[in-house]
Amino acid sequence: LMKSFSSLSIWTLESLSGLGEDGSSIGSDSEINGLAVRRTDKYGFLGGTQYSEGSDKDIRVDVARQRELKWLDMFNNWDKWVSRRFQKVKLRCRKGIPSSLRAKAWQLLSNSKELLDSNPGKFEELEREQGDPKWLDIIEKDLHRQFPFHEMFAARGGHGQQDLYRVLKAYTVYRPEEGYCQAQAPVAAVLLMHMPAEHAFWCLVQICETYLPGYYSAGLEAIQLDGEIFFSLLRRVCPMAYRHLKKFKIDPILYMTEWFMCVFSRTLPWSCVLRVWDMFFCEGVKIVFRVGLVLLKQMLGSVDKLREVQGMYETMERLRNIPPESVREDLLVQEVVSLAVTEALIERECSIQVRKWRESRGELTHQPVRRLHGTRDIHEHKRRASAISSGGSFSFLGSIPPPGPLRASSSLLSLPGFRKSKTPFQEAEEKNGATAPRDSA
């Protein structure tokens, strides 16, 4: 089994490294200098599979302005909106964050703005560190593979690639025990399309440590575990797709690794990517699961669709190269929003899969930690930590690693009143009569 997974890991990392279709792009200076002047699409793409022909319907100017004003009002009273009117915040994220305000919104939703403000000079300090040559060499080789058709990253050694290098190197210094994972590069690149390098760094920290903890650690155990959770959820959501994948023994890690680890940034049309990220920052990993399930329903959820993919090879080709024209933004968001996959369901399924893992494979190398499910969970964690800190009687707070990735420690999880769900990371809490977290669709 381990030998088999080792080969899968190599295949997966090759896929994540961008070899193939986009790997032989316009990524060198000579090629770029030789190109005729070409207009980018409204997202900054010069071409490639994620280039938009401008067919997306544009929002009327007056409607766009009204949305901007509503978001600016939320920014001015952010904590109150999250604590008292979170359902409205969530609804507005689902409608799509105005492009002019997306950078600030993502930082507030993820709480990376607070990390940035509370750690002045930290990013520059990390940059000044020498870094591990092993990671720096891999990062250097990966730079030209990240969105090579985007105007920011097309030129070798251009400002986009330089900033990407700065962010990825800083993270290897910040978390040397984790180092660098190739799937972090496209995630960091998406952030850099919207914000300066220092802001993107703290946002990346929150994704790696709060939203998707363990995803980018050696061994890929966290993504394997979520693959098992995902496959079990698929049996509920779309039995037809589940039976097809099971029939051909197509392991979840073969198709969902790039989806989940890159938060669909290399999979969907760009308008869809931005809408998914808006919801992801607000609602957490639940959105990633839902998008993946919706894609499988769309690709494998009918008899007609299955006639087109009558073997393992055809199925894998379909899932690795989803036709952009088959994914419509409004329809995708509608399906994602209406899918009955909640935080509590994911956590219950996680508990089951961890138990099965331990029975069949033994103990996990990297102990899973409780992920925080989006803005409300992060806000409540922060509020409780602040209340405890102001009380001054909990010495264990000193063990939370600065600058405070919002990862719940076992001590904090054992406190009465902390939001609980039945996960393998909170078994001690069950003795206290804990209940699952409140979660609406």
TrEMBL record:
Recorded superkingdom: Eukaryota
Record keyword Transferase present: no
Tagged with keyword Transcription regulation: no
One CC-aspect GO term: plasma membrane
Pfam family, one: RabGAP-TBC
Keyword terms, alphabetized: GTPase activation
Location of the region described as Disordered in the Swiss-Prot/TrEMBL record: 417-441
An annotated Gene Ontology molecular function: small GTPase binding
Domain Rab-GAP TBC: 96-284
Name of protein: TBC1 domain family, member 10b
Species name: Salmo trutta
Gene that encodes the chain: TBC1D10B
